[in-house]
Amino acid sequence: MRKLSYAVIGTGAIGGYYGGRLALSGQDVHFLYHSEYDYVKANGLDVKSVNGDFHLNNMQVYNNTESMPKCDVILVCMKSTQNDKLPQMLAPIVKDDSTIMLIQNGLGLEQELAKSFPNQVIAGGMAFICSSRVSPGHIIHADYGALTTAYLNNKYDEETAEQIKADFKNANVPYTQGDDLNMFRWRKLVWNIPYNGLTVVLRTTTDKLMQNPASRQLITDLMEETVAGARACGANIKDDFVQKMLSNTDNMEPYAPSMRLDYDNHRQMEIRAIYSNPVKMAKAAGVHMHKVEMLEQQLRFIQENEYNAK
Amino acid sequence: MRKLSYAVIGTGAIGGYYGGRLALSGQDVHFLYHSEYDYVKANGLDVKSVNGDFHLNNMQVYNNTESMPKCDVILVCMKSTQNDKLPQMLAPIVKDDSTIMLIQNGLGLEQELAKSFPNQVIAGGMAFICSSRVSPGHIIHADYGALTTAYLNNKYDEETAEQIKADFKNANVPYTQGDDLNMFRWRKLVWNIPYNGLTVVLRTTTDKLMQNPASRQLITDLMEETVAGARACGANIKDDFVQKMLSNTDNMEPYAPSMRLDYDNHRQMEIRAIYSNPVKMAKAAGVHMHKVEMLEQQLRFIQENEYNAK
């Protein structure tokens, strides 16, 4: 088996953790940084992890993709709010046989990227992880860590896919390759749609939303709308999935999802990928997700008003 | 024509203004006060009004209904959040031929009261007025002022109704008596439902909601759902009414509706009358107002969570 080269685009809490694990296990990993570039180049990356702490020195770090080598596997871990810049950013590092894996939230992102890279292999990665960047070069990985992937249109090179799987497993990352990207994306939305938006609009955390009867019912309504939208779009999510998501969340620690963190830190929220795209696709398939659409509308108001005011 | 006696139950910005105008014009008006009782008994009521300032001294004020005389016309101007106490409160002042007029927001309140007072005449009053209580005994009436009424089931005494109309007109209050209470209530909801709830949930004012394309569309959606609900409940609101409400609001000064003021002052919000009752009635008539229901759910969360936390 050949040795693959990896690029990590957007080295935050997610990219830093997965890329860091790969580098720690001896893989050839190239990290793109922006604001943290100088710090990490000088001091390396520090990860406190429930699966064992580690520190990386002398990392292969870059502050633009023009100076990076072309890579076999490109892990895109930045926020989807910047995806319109992705084709230009990736152009210098993509080869004919590159695999581009979007470890991001939301729907339709792989299809969008495929317009710019029609010949490359494109995958979606669903990260089930609690990880946060606490300061430049410092990540805390608090819980979970599994990565589930599927390839767009199930188009991929068998040998490369097997090698990627082996590399992640060797790096101590639970890694599952499935065959239904659309289903994976929609299933993740069933959780992401209610909790991300409502914790922002109602300025609260998951536990408080679950305890109040009105908001708990609203979460259930939003999940059921999402399941109806998913089914119309060909992802036949099972009947008991909503109840499973609710009881999983009941058993979680009080949690502020990524969109709430983005809001608190005055960063752009991933409204388009998590809300607008699913609403649009479900509507085109004949299902009007009323309450999901209302959440989208409220988030757009918040994004455009409060951020401008600050 | 006989001289009618009036009671004002809940003498705030609305009751103080209308009751004050009636008293100023020489009518026999009895005011119920709670926290402001001592102040108003000593200092009277001061009203700064676009239609002319006035001050009332030696008012007939009370701090409980047991000490009040029975009255011909009872103007209920308190928040509908306290309406469960209304039957007990009104019992001492209601006569067989009393007219009870609910100058309140929301749907179904007259029907609820009729269960306790099946033989009395019950009316709904829709106040189109910008009026606020700025301190004990001090009201500022900034704009508008018209009162539109209709009688529940169109059941009323012709002579008394004519006298009430004459008394209000004589008191310089534009007063219209209509014959479709259900239509009036629903028409007012078309404005109240979007602006009251959204200014609370999104912590904003009417003008900002109108300027942002996403929230403007959401307002339109909420209005159209309300019109659909109204029609299912027999109030055949015309097609152009939504556009009229939107352009009226475009021409208004930036405005914080009553629910936003209640929220800001940690008072109970009128969720039941403005949201829960309409949602329930429309659903019973076959129309699911999804987004209105979501606003209700969000307001209940805010009411029950933030108020407890404070």
- Main sheet of chain A? 10 strands, mixed
Q: What is the rounded Rg of chain A? A: 19 Å
- The helix/strand series of chain A, from N terminus to C terminus, equals EHEHEEEEHEHEEHEHHHHHHH
Total DSSP E strands of chain A:
10
Strand percentage of chain A lies at: 15-25%
What is the terminal-to-terminal distance of chain A?
53 Å
Globally, the shape of chain A reads globular
Helix content of chain A: 40-55%
| Pair of chains with the largest interface and how many residues each contributes | A-B, 24 and 24 residues
- Give the rounded overall mean pLDDT of chain A: 96
Structural class of chain A: alpha/beta
Number of helices of chain A: 12
Describe the fold and architecture.
With 310 residues, the first copy, chain A, is of the alpha/beta class. Chain A has helices at residues 13-24, 37-43, 86-90, 109-116, 158-170, 181-201, 206-211, 213-232, 241-250, 258-264, 271-284, 290-309; strands at 5-9, 28-32, 45-49, 54-56, 60-62, 71-76, 94-102, 121-135, 138-151, 175-178. In chain A, strands 1, 2, 3, 4, 5, 6, 7, 8, 9 and 10 form a 10-stranded mixed sheet that branches. In chain A, helix 4 links the parallel strand 7 (94-102) and strand 8. Chain A is globular. The mean pLDDT of chain A is 96. The A-B interface holds A 201-202, 204, 208-209, 212-215, 217-218, 221, 290-291, 293-294, 296-298, 300-302, 304-305 and B 201-202, 204, 208-209, 212-215, 217-218, 221, 290-291, 294-298, 300-302, 304-305.
